[in-house]
Design brief:
single chain; mainly alpha; about 0% strand; globular
Length: about 525
């Protein structure tokens, strides 16, 4: 495809890439609203809370562990080719997930979906970087980031509609026609591109990263599930995971073909931007995981109603993401990112307003979701542009993979850490009520709020549902406070290290590029 044709089609190309990206991001958020149904032993698979966490984390950990490798593979073999192959794998894994017969099968099928998603995601941002000139790239990345945020919010609505009329597997089956359409459009509209000097693969680094992340997540999830953090079965995996990740970092700093080039973090603009992305998704993703349980189990909403409650989040993404580039030009990436993180921190702190009786006004919840969406919409685009502009165009695959690796690792860790925090507070809150139950019922009620509701209804235990709801909401309050602190830490990182504006009023990174051009 000649450069003039690419230039004329650039916005159509962006539309196709954004459409394809929606499937990857949409899948996790659709799953969130289906968790309650999947946990139901009759309507779903009878999955425990830890199995539900693994259904999310098996996807995100494989995704994150392979992103950098597929960034290099795309640079070497052709980004369009690798993206089409990833779409095919994602479609197959979606079929396997839809017809899984047990939680274990679902977890493994979701891991395969992570493999396909890892092949898709870095290519989208790499192609955008190569198709758009620098003066339009920030706007294009803003639209791309808006699609990510929009998918986070419309996923629950889509999932709620599907669950209203179909079985739980439909939330995965819906991916297949979308992927087919996206692949056809991609074949005809998206140009092929590759790095003329691609790097070599790093299988040792990929293996170490996956082992380390899985071991760390396993230990964290086990601690939350059992409510005991000082046992060998919890400390062992956490310690082993941290040790393997330290070995991974040591290996990556010394190899000449790293899966994750840790030397890139010497650039403060890049490292601060990556930290902002990681911290905002860590803080927000864990909350999104259990908001569905709060709305459906505590507030008694249907899957569709709980999904509709996140529409203010989607509206904020649509309003603010495309406008973030203009804000950056006026105020600089540092100010915009820091303000976004402060908004997210304030929104998460507002979870304390959710009363233990579960009667918080719905308009207040909608307002919290809107503020959270507005904050994230002003973090992702400028932070992503800072990452991509810190690297030469031929290394777009590495920059894209770095951006998405930070996001996916943060999602996995956010779900594991904040989910485990909620689980621990929930179990402690039930206290003596669990001890009074027979052993099988005690385990079921202690694993999740859905389990407690089932035990209360099945055995006729008075007061158990109210106690479980109160314990779960208190866990959300604690986790919301923790998330607020994490987002606040992100704002401090941005204010300290992300470049600001030069004295002429332009963002510092633009001034730096002008100075380089003069030389």
């Amino acid at each position: 495809m000649d450069p003039e044709t690419i230039r004329r089609r650039r916005w159509y190309i962006l539309g196709v890439l954004t459409f394809s990206l929606l499937v990857v991001v949409l899948d996790n958020t659709i799953l969130n609203v289906a968790l309650k149904t999947i946990a139901d032993p009759d309507a779903g698979l009878g999955a425990t809370q830890s199995q539900l966490e693994w259904a999310i984390n098996s996807y995100t950990l494989v995704f994150a562990g392979l992103l950098f490798t597929f960034g290099v593979v795309g640079d070497r073999l052709g980004r369009k080719r690798v993206m089409v192959a990833g779409m095919a794998v994602f479609a197959l894994a979606s079929l396997l997930s839809a017809y899984a017969q047990s939680p274990g099968q679902l977890i493994w099928a979701r891991a395969l979906m992570g493999l396909g998603g890892a092949a898709i995601m870095p290519q989208t941002l790499s192609i955008i970087t190569n198709v758009f000139e620098p003066h339009e790239r920030a706007r294009a990345i803003g639209i791309w980031s808006g699609a990510v945020g929009l998918a986070i919010a419309i996923g629950p609505v889509t999932g709620g509609l599907l669950l209203e009329y179909f079985w739980w597997g439909s939330v995965f089956l819906i991916n297949v026609p979308v992927i087919v359409l996206g692949t056809v459009l991609m074949i005809f509209l998206v140009p092929e591109s590759r790095n003329p000097d691609p790097g070599r693969l790093d299988p040792a680094g990929v293996l170490l990263s996956i082992i380390g992340l899985v071991a760390l997540s396993y230990g964290i999830i086990q601690g939350g599930e059992h409510g005991a953090w000082l046992e060998a079965g919890v400390l062992g995996p956490i310690g082993a995971g941290l040790a393997v990740l330290a070995l991974f970092a040591w290996h990556e700093a010394r190899t000449d073909h790293p899966a994750l080039d840790v030397r890139l973090f010497r650039d403060p603009r890049l490292s601060a931007a990556v930290a902002a992305i990681a911290l905002v998704f860590f803080a927000a993703s864990g909350m999104i995981f259990f908001v569905g349980f709060y709305l459906q189990s505590v507030r008694g909403m249907s899957a569709l109603e709980s999904g509709a409650m996140l529409l203010p989040f989607a509206a904020a993404q649509l309003i603010f993401s495309p406008r973030s580039a203009a804000l950056v030009r006026r105020f600089g990436a540092k100010a915009v990112c820091a303000a976004g993180l402060l908004l997210v921190s304030g929104a998460l702190a507002s979870y304390w307003a959710m009363g233990i009786d579960g009667q918080t006004p719905l308009w207040l919840l909608g307002a919290v979701f809107f503020v959270q969406g507005a904050g994230m919409a002003n973090v992702m685009p400028p932070a992503t542009e800072s990452v991509m502009s810190a690297l030469p165009r031929e290394k777009a695959g590495a920059g894209s993979a770095l951006n998405n690796t930070a996001r996916q690792v943060a999602v996995a860790m956010g779900v594991a850490v904040l989910g485990s925090l909620v689980a621990s507070v929930y179990r402690d809150g039930l206290g003596d009520r669990l001890d009074a139950l027979p052993q099988p019922a005690r385990e079921l009620a202690g694993q999740s709020i859905e389990g407690a509701h089932g035990v209360a209804e099945g055995l006729g235990v008075p007061g158990l549902i109210a106690a479980a709801d109160a314990a779960f909401v208190h866990g959300m309050q604690i986790a919301g406070g923790a998330g607020a602190v994490i987002a606040l830490a992100g704002a401090l990182v941005v204010l300290k290290w992300l470049p600001g504006r030069d004295r002429a009023g332009a963002p510092a990174e633009e001034a730096e590029r002008r100075e380089t051009a003069r030389v």
